[in-house]
From TrEMBL:
<feature type="binding site" description="axial binding residue">
    <location>
        <position position="371"/>
    </location>
    <ligand>
        <name>heme</name>
    </ligand>
</feature>
<dbReference type="InterPro" id="IPR001128">
    <property type="entry name" value="Cyt_P450"/>
</dbReference>
<keyword id="KW-0408">Iron</keyword>
<dbReference type="InterPro" id="IPR050121">
    <property type="entry name" value="Cytochrome_P450_monoxygenase"/>
</dbReference>
<dbReference type="GO" id="GO:0020037">
    <property type="term" value="F:heme binding"/>
</dbReference>
<protein>
    <recommendedName>
        <fullName>Cytochrome P450</fullName>
    </recommendedName>
</protein>
<dbReference type="InterPro" id="IPR017972">
    <property type="entry name" value="Cyt_P450_CS"/>
</dbReference>
<dbReference type="InterPro" id="IPR002401">
    <property type="entry name" value="Cyt_P450_E_grp-I"/>
</dbReference>
<dbReference type="GO" id="GO:0005506">
    <property type="term" value="F:iron ion binding"/>
</dbReference>
<keyword id="KW-0349">Heme</keyword>
<dbReference type="Pfam" id="PF00067">
    <property type="entry name" value="p450"/>
</dbReference>
<dbReference type="InterPro" id="IPR036396">
    <property type="entry name" value="Cyt_P450_sf"/>
</dbReference>
<keyword id="KW-0503">Monooxygenase</keyword>
<comment type="similarity">
    <text>Belongs to the cytochrome P450 family.</text>
</comment>
<keyword id="KW-0560">Oxidoreductase</keyword>
<dbReference type="GO" id="GO:0043386">
    <property type="term" value="P:mycotoxin biosynthetic process"/>
</dbReference>
<dbReference type="GO" id="GO:0016705">
    <property type="term" value="F:oxidoreductase activity, acting on paired donors, with incorporation or reduction of molecular oxygen"/>
</dbReference>
Length: 431
C-alpha cells in the first residue's frame, strides 16, 4: 500500500500508518495514548503494557523502570551468570553423551529461570528439565496465537468468568495462559497476606510494586498479578527467540562464529556486561539479531489525544490512531544496504555515519512506552552469546532457515511450519 499510495496510508477507518523513518520519533515521542483495543487483546487490564492513557501509564510504569534500570541489572548479573553456568553444565553433558540439544528450548528455559528468580526470588529450574520444558514459554506462545481473535473479540471478560474445565475443553492454550497467571496470583496473594512491605525481599519486584508512596489502587492484588504476569510473559519469549536467531546465524555461516570467537578470545577475558558491550564484533552480532529478528510485528499504535500532528502537508487531528512498523525502520536499504543480510560489520562505522544506524534501530520501541526490560534483555544477549561461544562449538542438526526465520505473524513472528526449532550437536568444549 505504501508503494502504491505513498508514505501515509489510512489503513483502517480510524488509523493512519506512516512509513517514514524521520517521522518515527514524532509518533512515539511526547505524551501518547495507546489504542484502546489493547485492553481486549491482553487480558492484563491494569498492566503498564495495556494501559491506554499516558498519565496513568506513567504512574504504573515508574516502579518497574527503576527496577530494570541499568544499575539494577548490573547488580543482578550474578543471577544471569549462575544460569549461564547451569546451561554450560547441560551442554557439557550433551557433549559427553553425544545427544542432540534443542538449543532454543534451552534459551527459553534460561530466560524463564532468570526472570522468575529476578522478579520473584523463585527458582523454577526449567534448565534442569530433561527437555527444557517450560510452562511460561508455552503460555506466551499460546497467548500470541490468540492475538488476532482477541483483537476483534474482547474475550477477557468471558475467559475470566469461565470455569477452568470449560476452558480446557475449548482451548488448551488459553488454559496454559491462565495456569501461568494463576501461579503469579498465588505468589502475589501469599506476599500480600503474610508480609508487611518492610519485610519484603528488596530484590524482588514485589518490593518495587509495594512502595509505600504508591497509590493504594496500585498496590492491589489485581495490579500485582497483571504487572507480574506481563513481566513473566515479556521476559521469556522475546530474548529467548533473539538468542535462537543469533545462534542460528552464527552456525549457519561459521565464518561469523569464528570471527566472534577470535574477538572474544583475543580482546577481552571479561564476563561483565559493561566490558562486553565495548567489543565491536559482539555488538554487531547483537545489533543484527535485534534488527533482523526482534522487530515487533504488531503496529504499536499510538494517538496524540490533545495535539494536532503535521506530516508534510497532511494534518492529523488530535486523537487519531497512528502507527509505524519497525520493519521499515530496520529494513531501509539506504541505511542498511542489503538489509536481509546478517552482517555484524555494518555496525563498525556507526560513528562515521553520524550514528544513523543507531537511531534507526528500535527493537525496544521509543518514548515513554518503550520496553521496560531493555537493559535485562541486552545484558542477557551479551552475556549468553559471549558465554556460549567462548566455551563451545556446535554443528546444526536437521535445522534449516525455514525452521527459524519468521513467516507468520501473531504479534510476534513464527516460522513457516511448527517445528522442533534450533537443534545442535555440541562438537567441542573449550577449557
Ligand atoms: C529482545 C528482547 C525484547 C524486545 C525486542 C522487546 C520489545 C518490546 C517492545 C517493542 C515493547 C513496546 C510495546 C508497545 O509499545 O506496546 C516492549 C514493552 C515491554 N517489555 Fe519488552 N522486549 C524485550 C525483552 C523484554 C524483557 C526481557 C522484559 C523483562 C521483563 C520486557 C518487559 C517489557 C515490559 C514490561 C513492557 C511494557 C512497558 C510499558 O508499557 O510500560 N521486555 N518490549
Amino acid at each position: 500500500m505504501h508503494r502504491q499510495f505513498g508514505p501515509i496510508v489510512r489503513i483502517t477507518p480510524h488509523e493512519v500508518h506512516i512509513s517514514d523513518p524521520d517521522f518515527y520519533a514524532t509518533i512515539y515521542g511526547g505524551h501518547r495514548d495507546k489504542d484502546p483495543s489493547h485492553f481486549a487483546r491482553l487480558s492484563l487490564t491494569t498492566s503498564s503494557l495495556a494501559t491506554i492513557e499516558h498519565h496513568l501509564h506513567a504512574s504504573r510504569r515508574r516502579p518497574i523502570s527503576n527496577y530494570f534500570s541499568k544499575q539494577s541489572i548490573e547488580n543482578m548479573e550474578p543471577v544471569i551468570t549462575s544460569k549461564i553456568q547451569k546451561l554450560s553444565t547441560r551442554l557439557q553433558e550433551a557433549h559427553t553423551s553425544g545427544s542432540i540439544v534443542p538449543l532454543d528450548a534451552a534459551f527459553y528455559a534460561l530466560t524463564a529461570d532468570i526472570i522468575s528468580e529476578y522478579c520473584y526470588g523463585l527458582r523454577v529450574n526449567y534448565l534442569d528439565d530433561k527437555c527444557f520444558n517450560n510452562g511460561l514459554h508455552k503460555a506466551t506462545k499460546s497467548l500470541s496465537k490468540l492475538s488476532h481473535i482477541m483483537h476483534f473479540i474482547p474475550c477477557d471478560f468471558l475467559i475470566k468468568s469461565m470455569p477452568d474445565w470449560v476452558l480446557s475443553l475449548i482451548s488448551p492454550s488459553v488454559k496454559a495462559v491462565l495456569d501461568a497467571k494463576e501461579s503469579v496470583r498465588a505468589k502475589s496473594k501469599s506476599i500480600l497476606c503474610n508480609q508487611k512491605t518492610q519485610n519484603l525481599d528488596k530484590r524482588t519486584i514485589f518490593y518495587a510494586l509495594n512502595e509505600p508512596g504508591l497509590p493504594p489502587q496500585q498496590r492491589s492484588l489485581e495490579h500485582l498479578v497483571d504487572q507480574g504476569s506481563q513481566l513473566m510473559g515479556a521476559g521469556v519469549e522475546t530474548t529467548g527467540s533473539t538468542l535462537k536467531f543469533i545462534m542460528f546465524h552464527l552456525l549457519h555461516n561459521k565464518s561469523l562464529l569464528v570471527a566472534l570467537r577470535n574477538e572474544l578470545m583475543e580482546e577481552s577475558q571479561s564476563t561483565r556486561w559493561s566490558d562486553l558491550e565495548k567489543l565491536p564484533y559482539l555488538t554487531g552480532v547483537v545489533n543484527e539479531g535485534l534488527r533482523l529478528f526482534a522487530h515487533h510485528f504488531g503496529r504499536l499504535t499510538r494517538s496524540a489525544p490533545f495535539e494536532t500532528l503535521y506530516y508534510k502537508h497532511w494534518v492529523i487531528p488530535a486523537g487519531t490512531l497512528i502507527s509505524a512498523s519497525h520493519y521499515y525502520m530496520h529494513m531501509d536499504p539506504q541505511v542498511f544496504p542489503n538489509p536481509h543480510k546478517f552482517s555484524p560489520e555494518r555496525w563498525f562505522d556507526v560513528k562515521e555515519n553520524g550514528g544513523q544506524q543507531n537511531s534507526r534501530l528500535v527493537p525496544f520501541g521509543k518514548g515513554t512506552r518503550r520496553c521496560a526490560g531493555q537493559n535485562l534483555a541486552l545484558a542477557e544477549l551479551y552475556l549468553v552469546i559471549a558465554g556460549v561461544v567462548r566455551s563451545f562449538d556446535f554443528e546444526l542438526f536437521e535445522t534449516s532457515p525455514d525452521d527459524i526465520l519468521h513467516y507468520r505473524e501473531y504479534q510476534i513472528g513464527f516460522p513457516k511450519k511448527e517445528n522442533d526449532g534450533l537443534k545442535v550437536e555440541v562438537t567441542q568444549v573449550f577449557k
